[in-house]
Specification:
4-stranded parallel beta sheet, two-stranded antiparallel ribbon
């Protein structure tokens, strides 16, 4: 299977450690993401500069992978990234990451589905976008489950996106 270039979206302050685990799995293209230092630099810019950065990142990717933690849903930049990916007709998939441990060895509570908060033509985008939630509860098992499923989830999101959002 081809390694796809994807844009990882996540709630930085809560889930950067968990997102780092996903990004470092090596199952998507190495250019598919940004370093934490890049994001720190972007967060300190104006809204217009952040939008341009997100737009440029998404333009060069085939899929938005939304890593869903406890407080991901209905955040300003998460909603913007979902809407922009829809506008650009990108594949979109959500992956729950709450059961991965952070640096302190803690798991978190499952968050709401972010696609419930973004509408497409009057319908919740959750109607069109798949989310993956590992059936496992132990962090190492969750990690392995995500690692084995993420290539197929990305491919499915790209190949089965609505022809017109």
């Amino acid at each position: 299977m081809v390694k796809r270039q994807v844009f990882f979206s996540f709630h930085f302050s809560n889930d950067s450690t968990r997102a780092g685990q996903i990004r470092n799995m090596g199952v998507v293209d190495n250019s598919s993401t940004f370093s934490d230092n890049d994001w720190e630099e972007v967060r300190e810019k104006t809204d217009d500069k952040i939008k341009r950065w997100i737009d440029n990142q998404l333009n060069n990717r085939s899929c938005l992978v939304l890593l869903i933690g406890e407080e991901t849903a209905n955040r300003k930049w998460i909603n913007y990234e979902i809407n922009k990916a829809i506008e650009l007709n990108k594949g979109i998939v959500g992956i729950y990451i709450h059961n991965l441990k952070n640096l302190k060895g803690q798991q978190s509570n499952k968050g709401n589905n972010p696609f419930e908060y973004v509408t497409v033509k009057g319908e919740k985008s959750s109607k069109f976008i798949t989310t993956f939630d590992s059936k496992y509860k132990i962090s190492t098992n969750v990690y392995n489950d995500i690692k084995s499923n993420i290539p197929g989830l990305i491919e499915n999101a790209i190949l089965n996106k609505p022809s017109t959002w």
